[in-house]
C-alpha cells in the first residue's frame, strides 16, 4: 500500500510539472489527437503533452516497455488515470489501436506483429479502424461474408464492411474475414490486418441522424494481404475477435464519460430548467426519475470498481460481459431524462436560439441510440448475459 501511495505522489508531482495549463481545459472534438498519417495536433502544447506522456511510457502504461509501455501494474495505471482526472488533464491521444487492437495483439500477435504495430500505435504513427459488421451481418456477426482466398504467399480479400468508424481517416483496419466457406460459422473466420492504402481499398462516409458522419462503408476489391498479417491461427479468428470485443464493450460502457461535447448533467439541468417548491422539484415524476438515475449510476460505478478489483485478484469475472449493456442503456436513459428536464429547450439542433450545451445534449441523445446497437445490440447483449453470466438454458435445451 505504501508503495502505491509513493507512486501516487510521484504521478501527482510529475503531472503537475509536465501537463501544460492549456491541456487541463475542456477539450473540443476538433482538438482530439488520433495520430496516424493524417493526424495533427491542435496546438504546440498538445504536441508537447503527447510527447511527454509517450516518453514516460504512460500512453499505454500496462504494456511492456519493449512496445512503448511502462510495465506498470493495473493498480498503478489506475492511479495515473485518477490523478489525471484530478487536474482535468486531457487524454494525449485517442484510438482503437490503443484501446482495442493493442491488447488483442499482446495476447495473440506474433513477435513480429507486436514489434511492427504496438510501438507505432503508442507513438501515434498509425490510426486503426475496425472491420467487423457487414451490411448483412451485424448482431449475427458470425454470418459475415467478406472473404479472403488463400493465394500462396498472400490472401485476396473481397467484400465490404460497414459502420467502420472514421475509416476514411485511418491507416490500417483490423478485419474479420471468411477463410473457409464450408466450415461452421465461427470456425471459418480469420483475423487480418489490412493497410488502408493498399490497392482495392475504398471508403464511403455514412451520414448519421446526429448530423455527423463518423461511420463509413469500406470496400475491398481483390485486395492483396500478406500472410504475415494474419493474427492468430487460420480459421480461428473468432477467438481473437471475442478477446477484442471485451475491450470494445468496456470502452462503450464508458461512453460519454470523456465526451468533448458540452453535455448537461441531469442534476445540474434540473436546477436550471425545473420548477422548485421549498427546495423540492415540483414535478414528482421527474423527481423520481432523477433519483432512479442517480442510484443506477452509483451501481454502475460500484460494478466498474468490482471488475477492477477482481482483475487485480486474478478472478475471472463475468462483470465485463454486462457492462456494455448497462453502460450504453444508462447513457441512453440519461439523454432521455435530460430532454424531459429541458422541455422545449431539448429540441435545439442548431442556431443562436439555443445554447451550445442544449444543442450538444440533443445531438448526443440521438447518438446514444446508436451506441445501444454498435458493438452488439442490447438484445444480443442480454442473450450473452443469459448464456454466459446467468447460465440459463438456450433454445432447444431442456
How does this structure look, described?
It contains eleven helices and ten strands. The protein is α+β, with helices and mostly antiparallel strands and 398 residues long. The radius of gyration is 22 Å and the shape is globular. The relative contact order is 0.09. The model is unreliable at 255-260 (pLDDT under 50).
Helix content: 40-55%
Low-confidence stretches: 255-260
Determine the number of helices (DSSP H or I, runs of at least 4 residues).
11
Structural class: alpha+beta
How many structural domains are formed by the residues? Answer: 3
How big a fraction of the residues is strand?
A: 5-15%
> How many whole angstroms does the radius of gyration measure?
22 Å
CATH topology of the largest domain: Butyryl-CoA Dehydrogenase, subunit A, domain 3
Q: Tell me about the biggest sheet?
A: 4 strands, mixed
- Provide the residue-averaged pLDDT: 87
CATH class designation of the largest domain: Mainly Alpha
Main β-sheet, spatial strand arrangement: 1-4-5-8
Shape: globular
The CATH architecture classification of the largest domain is Up-down Bundle
Distance between the termini: 50 Å
Q: Say which CATH homologous superfamily of the largest domain is assigned.
A: Butyryl-CoA Dehydrogenase, subunit A, domain 3
Tell me how many strands there are: 10
Strand/helix succession? HHHHHEEEEEEEEHHEEHHHH
Amino acid at each position: 500500500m505504501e508503495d502505491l501511495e509513493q507512486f501516487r505522489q510521484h504521478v501527482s508531482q510529475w503531472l503537475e510539472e509536465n501537463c501544460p495549463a492549456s491541456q487541463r481545459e475542456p477539450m473540443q472534438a476538433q482538438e482530439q489527437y488520433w495520430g496516424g498519417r493524417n493526424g495533427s495536433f491542435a496546438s504546440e502544447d498538445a504536441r508537447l503533452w503527447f510527447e511527454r506522456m509517450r516518453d514516460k511510457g504512460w500512453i499505454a502504461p500496462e504494456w511492456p516497455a519493449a512496445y512503448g509501455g511502462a510495465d506498470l501494474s493495473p493498480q498503478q495505471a489506475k492511479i495515473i488515470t485518477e490523478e489525471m482526472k484530478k487536474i482535468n488533464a486531457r487524454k494525449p491521444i485517442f484510438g482503437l489501436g490503443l484501446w482495442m487492437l493493442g491488447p488483442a495483439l499482446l495476447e495473440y500477435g506474433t513477435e513480429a506483429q507486436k514489434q511492427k504495430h504496438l510501438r507505432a500505435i503508442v507513438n501515434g504513427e498509425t490510426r486503426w479502424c475496425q472491420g467487423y459488421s457487414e451490411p448483412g451481418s451485424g448482431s449475427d456477426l458470425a454470418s459475415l461474408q467478406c472473404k479472403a482466398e488463400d493465394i500462396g504467399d498472400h490472401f485476396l480479400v473481397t467484400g465490404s464492411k460497414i459502420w467502420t468508424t472514421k475509416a476514411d481517416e485511418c491507416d490500417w483496419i483490423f478485419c474479420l474475414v471468411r477463410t473457409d466457406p464450408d466450415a461452421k460459422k465461427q470456425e471459418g473466420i480469420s483475423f487480418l490486418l489490412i493497410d488502408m492504402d493498399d490497392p482495392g481499398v475504398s471508403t464511403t462516409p455514412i451520414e448519421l441522424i446526429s448530423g455527423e458522419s463518423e461511420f463509413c462503408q469500406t470496400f475491398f476489391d481483390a485486395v492483396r494481404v500478406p500472410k504475415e498479417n494474419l493474427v492468430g491461427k487460420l480459421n480461428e479468428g473468432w477467438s481473437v475477435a471475442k478477446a477484442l470485443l471485451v475491450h470494445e464493450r468496456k470502452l462503450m460502457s464508458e461512453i460519454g464519460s470523456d465526451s468533448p461535447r458540452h453535455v448537461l448533467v441531469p442534476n445540474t439541468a434540473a436546477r436550471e430548467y425545473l420548477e422548485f417548491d421549498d427546495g423540492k422539484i415540483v414535478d414528482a415524476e421527474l423527481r423520481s426519475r432523477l433519483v432512479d438515475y442517480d442510484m443506477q449510476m452509483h451501481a454502475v460505478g460500484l460494478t466498474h470498481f468490482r471488475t477492477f478489483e477482481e482483475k487485480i485478484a486474478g478472478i475471472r469475472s463475468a462483470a465485463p460481459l454486462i457492462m456494455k449493456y448497462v453502460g450504453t442503456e444508462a447513457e441512453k436513459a440519461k439523454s432521455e431524462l435530460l430532454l424531459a428536464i429541458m422541455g422545449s429547450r431539448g429540441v435545439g439542433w442548431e442556431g443562436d436560439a439555443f445554447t451550445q450545451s442544449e444543442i450538444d445534449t440533443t445531438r448526443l441523445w440521438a447518438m446514444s441510440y446508436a451506441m445501444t446497437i454498435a458493438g452488439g445490440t442490447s438484445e444480443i447483449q442480454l442473450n450473452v448475459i443469459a448464456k454466459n453470466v446467468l447460465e440459463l438454458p438456450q433454445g432447444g435445451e431442456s
